[in-house]
Amino acid sequence: MNEFTMIREHGPEPTPLSADVLAKARADLLAEIHAATPATTSRPVHLRRRTVVVAAAAVAVAVVTGVIATGGTDTPIPTYEAPVLIKFDMPALPPELNPVPDGVTAPGFTAEPGWLAAVYSDADKKPGEEMSAISVIVSSNRRSSDGARTTYAGKPAVLEKVDQKEPAFRQVALTWERSPGQWIKLTGTGRYADEHTVRSLADTLVDTDKRLSLDINVAPAGWELYAFKGAAPDGAGAVTSLRDPNNPNRTIHVSTMLGLVPNYGQAVEGGPRDTIGVSVNGRQGDLVQIPGKQWMLQAPLPDGRAFQLQVPADFTQQQVIELAEGVS
């Protein structure tokens, strides 16, 4: 029994976590994922008959770690009217460190409602060493902070410090409003957990016009970015999720794969199911309807990869195709 199993089975009920704690945990976990060896991050997923095709996660931890398998029943979900689709603008990435410091990788990205994070992972971590990383979280509102009041660039700021001895964990975070409506939390972990270092890193932030690697440019009116995970080095495993803020159970997930899944109708949840051949931006795709639950669609991307789209059942077939044509 490992420590995670022991805690889950015998430990006390957990205390609810704050949004900041969850954000930090996701950023830390993403840093660990990016620090993993290619053998662990780029392994393709092999599907078996009557298994669920690689699915974008509906909870934060699953989004960070990759994918989840949904249940195999056809229990209907509540029905709604087909929504109105409009142009959707993905949020801009956080300002980037320029130059990227020695000892860290290029940033990976993750997101949840209200914030988006860039994580610069430890490029030199050795087994048993304390993890070092830098994260830059951008949000439209100030996130709760319990640290000391200070200033940065002449503006009010909050400085938070963690110095844990056993196991060793050090972290320093600086939060301030960089521009009206743009709150930044820059966190240094490990060897970057120093106030002077964090302030110096903040001085190097510059705006970027780069975009998330898996974009959706069409969405129901009023929906928001729910979660995001960048791709593995081979280009598979990127996840972008949108949701209805008035009904968080209504979500759209899109994820990248190395290629199309053969016999798609047999591989999806509860298969075999009838497959509808569709054209997505002039490329042949497969559409499957799971009555009362969702639509599932796979189609090629121009670079040779493929993507999978999961959409609530009340959308029309044409709307599912329209959403798919907005994936890039």
Produce the secondary structure layout:
Blueprint: H1 3-10, H2 19-35, H3 38-41, E1 55-56, H4 60-65, E2 67-68, E3 85-87, E4 96-97, E5 108-112, E6 115-120, E7 133-139, E8 148-152, E9 155-164, E10 169-179, E11 182-189, H5 195-203, E12 205-206, E13 218-220, E14 224-229, E15 239-244, E16 247-257, H6 264-267, E17 276-280, E18 283-290, E19 294-300, E20 306-312, H7 317-325
Antiparallel strand pairs: 1-2, 3-13, 4-12, 5-6, 5-14, 6-7, 7-11, 8-9, 9-10, 10-11, 14-15, 15-16, 16-20, 17-18, 18-19, 19-20
3D architecture notes:
The structure is a single chain. The protein is of the alpha+beta class and 328 residues long. The chain folds into two domains: 51-88 and 212-325, Protein Transport Mog1p, Chain A (3-Layer(aba) Sandwich); 96-206, Protein Transport Mog1p, Chain A (3-Layer(aba) Sandwich). Helix content is 17%, strand content 35%. The protein is built from seven helices and 20 strands. The chain has helices at 3-10, 19-35, 38-41, 60-65, 195-203, 264-267, 317-325, and strands spanning 55-56, 67-68, 85-87, 96-97, 108-112, 115-120, 133-139, 148-152, 155-164, 169-179, 182-189, 205-206, 218-220, 224-229, 239-244, 247-257, 276-280, 283-290, 294-300, 306-312. The strands form four sheets. The chain has a 14-stranded antiparallel β-sheet, sandwiched between helices. The longest helix has 17 residues, at 19-35. The protein is elongated and about 60 Å long. The chain starts with a helix and ends with a helix. The chain crosses the membrane at residues 52-72. Keywords: Membrane, Transmembrane, Transmembrane helix.
